[in-house]
Amino acid sequence: MTRIQRMTLDYHFKVEQEAGSSTYAFFGFNGTAGVWRMSAIKQAGGWNDRTTVEDMDLAVRASLKGWKFVYVGDLKVKSELPSSFGAYRHQQHRWTCGAANLLRKSALEIWMAKEVSLLKKIYLLYNFFFVRKVVAHIVTFTFYCVIIPASVLVPEVRIPAWGVVYIPTTITLLNAIRNFSCVYILPFWILFENVMAMHRMRATLIGLCEAGGANEWVVTEKLGGALKQKLLPENIAIGNTSSTVGHRFYFPELGFAVFLFICASFDLTYGGIITTCTSIYNQLLFSLWA
């Protein structure tokens, strides 16, 4: 799980953030090893708790004031990753839901900003938020986790190879290109990301609609925080490990796994027969029409 997170975060930092820094485009600020100018924070209006991604919110407002961010890749700092699947789910829900909710609350503010160019406004609204924070999560789950598996149940549906094989393979290789030592875990990374796609799409819809739980703050549980109970206020929830059945067995994941297993079994058992019968049926109809 640590290596899977490494692959995802390495792409996020070295591709998304470093590319945004080198082109002086916007990239979302992270609290990890980040340094701010006090004048930038004050000019942007200070910290705001209107979403669960207050660091990204501050970065957006500072960028609209004309401030630029620089990614320094040669500085190395230690950081701790979530060590359990439950903690990772809480973290990803907060990041995904918060970004979608921030788009809802700041879209008009971005469009009406006067200190930045029209091109940067379009980049922020379309590229950074709409495509990467909304469309990417919804398409990943609905197309690759629902439509493609369910298509085996409808023999008339034919999905081209570029949509099923070429594009997913290219995306996977681009994510893993900087981690050749972890290439052997690519199948596990794909399965893990498919599972997380369900949670990210749900979190995206919650953030866009500002449904229940959109502003719920759950601190990511980490084993190294021995003093977290003393340092954090009592009213902040911490994702502690629970002994209840709901926290030991993840029923949404298991239910979706059953759906995928049924689709795979159906395709393995009847796929060839249905394809052959459909071809004969189509040929017969064509002959009768002729």
UniProtKB/TrEMBL annotation:
One GO CC annotation: Golgi membrane
Keyword Membrane: yes
Cellular location(s): Golgi apparatus membrane
UniProt GO BP: cell wall organization
Keyword hit for Cell wall biogenesis/degradation: yes
Keywords noted in UniProt: Cell wall biogenesis/degradation, Glycosyltransferase, Golgi apparatus, Membrane, Transferase, Transmembrane, Transmembrane helix
Entries under Gene3D superfamilies matching the protein: Spore Coat Polysaccharide Biosynthesis Protein SpsA, Chain A
Major subcellular site: Golgi
Lineage: Eukaryota, Viridiplantae, Streptophyta, Embryophyta, Tracheophyta
Record field: transmembrane: 134-154, 166-192, 256-281
UniProt-recorded name of the protein: Glycosyltransferase 2-like domain-containing protein
Membrane topology: Multi-pass membrane protein
InterPro entries reported in the protein's UniProt record: Glyco_trans_2-like (IPR001173), Nucleotide-diphossugar_trans (IPR029044)
